[in-house]
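Feature request, filed as a ticket because there's no other form

It would be nice if the structure record came with a short human-readable summary line next to the tokens. Right now we just get the raw output. Example of a typical job, pasted below so the devs can see what we mean:
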Amino acid sequence: MPTFFSWPGVTIYLTREAISNTLKSIRSVAAPGSEFVMDYVDSALFLPEKQSPAMRALFDRVQRLGEPFISGFDPRTLAEELAVIGFELLEDLDHTGQEARYSATRADGLRPVEGTHFVHARL
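Raw output as currently delivered:
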């Protein structure tokens, strides 16, 4: 029976090896048709010259708190990386898409963080 795995708020704190091993573990126990969602940060934002002042402040803040951001993904190669593990990328929603889908009508001011992505994939 297919299973749905929800994995938000985690990958940015893990090494790419740990992320890959986790996805391989899911693949090894999940039935075909199983799906997962996760979020990630565009790997380009790990380069200081690619960071906005707000993103630089966020990276600095989490570093000071002892929970540094460790890794991200390149949106241009993510589908291929997932396919190697056995997953089909169904959707990769960047922060602009998140804004349109989830925040456009919000009155509370909550907005997606620049450079973040939501991913939906299927085994």
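Something like this underneath would help us a lot:
The chain has four helices and four strands.
Residues 14 and 59 are 15 Å apart (CA to CA).
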